[in-house]
Amino acid sequence: MKIGLQLHPHIRKSKKALKEILQFLIDQGQELYISQKAAQHYKPLIKNINYTSVEECVGIIDVMLCIGGDGTFLGGLRRIRGTDIPILGIHLGGLGFLADLSLEDYQSKLRALFEGNYEIDERYSLEAETYPAVNDKKYRATNEFHIAKGNVMSMIKIKIFVDDEYLNTYRADGLLVSSPTGSTAYGLSAGGPIISPGLDIMAISPICPHSLSARPVIISGEQEVKIDCSKFKQDESLVIDGTERVSLKSVEDVIVRRSDETFKIIRFKEESFFKTLRKKLNWGIDSRGN
Fold it and tell me: What is 125-260's CATH number, 2.60.40.3140, 2.60.200.30, 3.30.70.360, 3.30.1330.10?
């Protein structure tokens, strides 16, 4: 199997774990590929690996393996966007929901992968367009689009429409439109709902709204969200998955919808979304010892 690697930028702090993982893969007879750009800080640590351009790497590999946390996983997804290459992750970060494998179980899980004992969890992304267009492009997000106030100290007013029907004007620090995958990302911190990833829905969640009645709203994946930006006057921006920022200074509207583009996560039969929730959030554990 030809495996592409996406590494956490500061994985050198975990270089012992990285060496053990890579040596295990090599001992199992797997071919490892990493882009020159991604590997520039790690070459002293990594041997017996094929160095390629990003384009060559994506054209060769069967699987993308991310070693780090959910941010690393998102970086791996960006590299394989628009392909059918499945992805999985070994978790070395903090609280994360995308990278399933741990240092304790990665060897047994990877053996199952090599033997074909796995399932594919196919999920959809979100896409956004600005009007008038910025850079003549559509933006795609795995987790969420975030209307951010930037350097503005006060709240901003965010006027929202669903399928061109007025919903609400939120006075808040910002707003999220999240996919089910993103419901355990920024949306979780913002008090949004946790959504089972198989559902075809989106969540609209105001960030710190100045109203007790302003609650997250769930809408169908068939619907579109329009954010009226015409009254924005400061440093407001559209932030994509926390990694890319687009200024909204000259934008009238942002339209967010479900994308036709999907991505494939490798899952193992003994794992489930709800098992991950219990493990990550310590659900089902009585801290009182009863």
Answer: 2.60.200.30
Q: Encoding tokens for residue 59?
A: 């054209």
Q: Average pLDDT over the chain, rounded to whole?
A: 90
Instruction: Round to whole Å and give the CA distance between 177 and 166.
Output: 16
User: Quick one: average pLDDT of 40-57?
Assistant: 74
State the span(s) of the chain assigned CATH 3.40.50.10330: 2-118+268-281
Please determine, for residue 19, whether its predicted confidence score (pLDDT) is greater than 90. no
- Catalytic site includes residue 70: yes
Q: In the chain, list all ranges with CATH 2.60.200.30.
A: 125-260
Question: Can you say whether the dihedral through the CA atoms of 255, 259, 165, 188 is positive or negative?
Answer: negative
| Residue pointed to by tokens 């047994």 | 108
- Inform me whether the pLDDT recorded for 10 exceeds 90: no
Cα-to-chain-centroid distance, residue 77: 8
Q: Is the pLDDT of residue 105 over 70?
A: yes
Residues 265-290 have a mean pLDDT of 85
CATH node for 2-118+268-281: 3.40.50.10330
Exactly one of 70, 100, 121, 241 is catalytic; name it.
Answer: 70
Distance (Å, rounded) from C-alpha 144 to C-alpha 104? 30
> Among 21, 164, 190, which residue's Cα sits nearest to residue 90?
21
**Would you state the structure tokens that stand for residue 86, as one six-digit string?**
């499945």
